[in-house]
Specification:
Aminopeptidase; 7 helices; globular; N-formylglutamate amidohydrolase; N-FG_amidohydro
Length: 276
C-alpha cells in the first residue's frame, strides 16, 4: 500500500490507474483494483484517535468502539473499489456535514473535558474535507466512464440497545430517488435477506426500520451526482458481542464471502438498467 497525498490520489484516479493507498495523514484508505460501476464505502470503520486528543476525551476506547462500525471494511474488502475511514468518528464524523462533524457531545455525554482549541478543530476538519475531495473525484470518474454508478455505503448498529425486534440488515432510503430506484432497493434487500450466517443467526432485512439513510456520505453523493445511487446498508452487530468488543470472525467471514458475489450481481443489474 502506498502513502499518497490528496493531489497524488486524485491524479491517479483521473489517469484511471489501479492502486492501493493510504492518505498521507493515514486518515483513510482507497483501493482500486479495477474501474467498475460500483464503489464500496465504510466511513465509520476507523478506530484511530489522534494522540493530542486523548487526555481531553471523556469517552473510553471501548465507548468509542461501541459507536463505530468495526469490520464494515472487511465485509467488502474483496470488492474492486473500496474507500474507508481509518479515524474514529469521535475525532470527526465523515457521515456528518462539516459544520457538525466534530462532536461536542456524543450519545448523551460531553465528549471533551474542555472545548478543543481552534487548531485541533481545524486539523480534524481538513481530514474531512480531503476525504470528500477524493470521493468527489472518484464518483466523478466512475459516473463519467459508465454513465451511472452505485455506492454500497456500509454501516453497522448496536441492536441490543433497541427494546423491540430489529432487522439484521436495514437499508436507509429516505434521501435517494425512490421513484427511480425502488426496484433496485427491493432487490438489494431481498438479496441480503438470503444471507446464510453461522451460529443460527436468522437473517432479516428491512427498509427504513431502524435508520432512514440520513448520513452525509449518502447525501453528498446524491446531491452532487444525479446518476449515482447510494445504498446505506446497515448490519446489526450480530457479528460481534457489542457489550464486550469480541468479534466473531466466522460471521464476518460468512458475510464477506457472500457479499463477494451479491454485490457484483446487484451492481450488474443496476448497470444494465441505468447505463446511458
Amino acid at each position: 500500500m502506498q502513502k499518497l497525498s490528496i493531489p497524488e490520489i486524485i491524479k491517479k484516479i483521473e489517469a484511471e490507474e489501479c492502486f492501493e493507498a493510504v492518505s498521507i495523514d493515514y486518515s483513510f484508505t482507497l483501493k482500486i483494483d479495477d474501474y467498475v460501476p460500483y464503489i464500496c464505502g465504510a466511513v465509520h470503520d476507523g478506530h484511530n484517535f489522534r494522540k493530542d486528543l486523548w487526555a481531553n476525551c471523556t469517552h473510553s476506547e471501548y465507548e468509542r468502539w461501541f459507536e463505530e462500525d468495526p469490520c464494515t471494511k472487511d465485509m467488502v474488502n474483496t470488492m474492486p473499489i473500496v474507500i474507508a475511514g481509518r479515524d474514529s468518528r469521535f475525532e470527526y464524523d465523515l457521515n456528518r456535514h462539516p459544520n457538525i462533524a466534530v462532536y461536542e457531545d456524543a450519545w448523551g455525554k460531553a465528549l471533551w473535558k474542555t472545548p478543543i482549541d481552534e487548531q485541533q478543530h481545524k486539523v480534524s476538519l481538513e481530514k474531512h474535507t480531503n476525504f470528500y475531495k477524493v470521493v468527489h473525484a472518484l464518483v466523478s470518474m466512475i459516473e463519467a466512464k459508465f454513465g451511472c454508478a452505485i455506492v454500497y455505503d456500509m454501516h453497522s448498529y448496536n441492536w441490543k440497545r433497541w427494546n423491540r425486534e430489529v432487522p439484521v440488515i436495514n437499508l436507509g432510503t429516505t434521501n435517494i430517488n425512490n421513484s427511480k430506484y425502488s426496484s433496485l432497493v427491493n432487490q438489494w434487500r431481498d438479496s441480503l435477506a438470503e444471507l446464510i450466517l453461522p451460529n443460527n443467526i436468522a437473517v432479516t432485512a428491512a427498509i427504513n426500520d431502524t435508520f432512514q439513510g440520513n448520513g452525509y456520505f449518502l447525501k453528498y453523493i446524491t446531491n452532487h451526482f444525479q446518476d449515482t445511487l447510494v445504498l446505506a446498508t446497515e448490519f446489526s452487530k450480530i457479528y460481534c458481542d457489542e457489550l464486550t468488543g469480541i468479534i466473531f470472525p466466522e460471521v464476518v467471514s460468512a458475510i464477506t464471502t457472500q457479499l463477494k458475489n451479491k454485490i457484483p450481481q446487484h451492481a450488474d443489474t443496476f448497470y444494465r438498467t441505468f447505463a446511458t
